[in-house]
What we know:
Elements (H helix, E strand, L loop, with lengths): L9 H20 L1 H26 L4 H32 L1 H23 L3 H30 L2 H13 L1 H11 L3 H39 L5 H11 L5 H18 L1 H27 L7 H35 L5 H7 L4
Helix pairs in contact: 1-2, 2-3, 2-6, 2-8, 3-9, 4-5, 7-8, 8-9, 8-11, 8-12, 9-10, 10-11, 12-13
Amino acid sequence: MSTPKIEISGLNLIKTLLLSGGIIALFYYGKDLVIPLLVAAIIAILLDIPVQKLKSWGLPNWASITLAVLLMLILFLLIFWLLNSQISNMAEDWSTIKDKANEKLNSLSQWTNDRLNWNYKDYIEGNKELVEKAEGLASTFLSSIMSLLSQSLIIFVYIILFLMQKKQFINFFKKQFSNEAAISSLMVKSAQTIKNYFVGKGKIMGFLFVIYYIGFLFGSVPYALFLALFASLFSIIPYVGNIIGGGVAVLLSYLYAGSTPALIVIGVISVTQLVENYVLTPWIIGDEINLNPFITIFGIIVFSALWGVVGAVISLPLIGVLKVVFDHTKGMEAYAYLLKKMD
């Protein structure tokens, strides 16, 4: 009995590999050009919601765009002001935090010396170095954020241009393909995927902030507002964001106030995460980003390697859009099937 053979077009395989490699190379080496465009396009798609609402109230297009952009700026400035004010308060107490951190780490080293016969004195200097390394990591993270903010002007310009020339961009894509119905459906569903994901994420982040803040206040956790805001903002990064934000909140509360506030933070974050994962995310975001778990993790890793924190934030909606593209492209149905989460 002959073995069934798989027919593979070598030409198509080569084209696929070259196209994939070219796109990855463009994304990596051209990230300074691609990232501002993608971020601006995503924000413009989100701002299209209030723009269309304002236009339905009878405002002209230019006025709707202006008010929507002003609303965005007010929101960003409010978040920046809150973070800046809280960081300023922490900076005033930073020497106290360092002293308490060294004290806690030295106590931990003494405990390990007593229980595990480790040399306690050798760890004191090491603990000081650990605190200094933590400061270095924080500085590196802040510098990466400032690097992104340095591109804010060009992103702002792109956003306005995208909103003003929306119809021209849509007509351009329609003219590239003979099946206008298919390309219209593709663009509508792609935009809807991005809108539903980020609007849903925004609602979830707001819920997390309120619950975190109330829980931290109830537990007398120091810097409750900053820790609640920090942990909720980091939740926009899939999976690892909750770990980073929650971990920093637990660490700071432990080093500054002791084990009881740290346990309260752990309890509040753990319960809230259960509610988010099993209630809020399925209810608010739903099936818009219903991706294969393996593809989800792999995609986050790939985009994080290419674009850092920004890549991690936008990875899931981009993969969701890719799934929509495959669904609407003849011959790519197998790839769309691979991206989907099976029931």
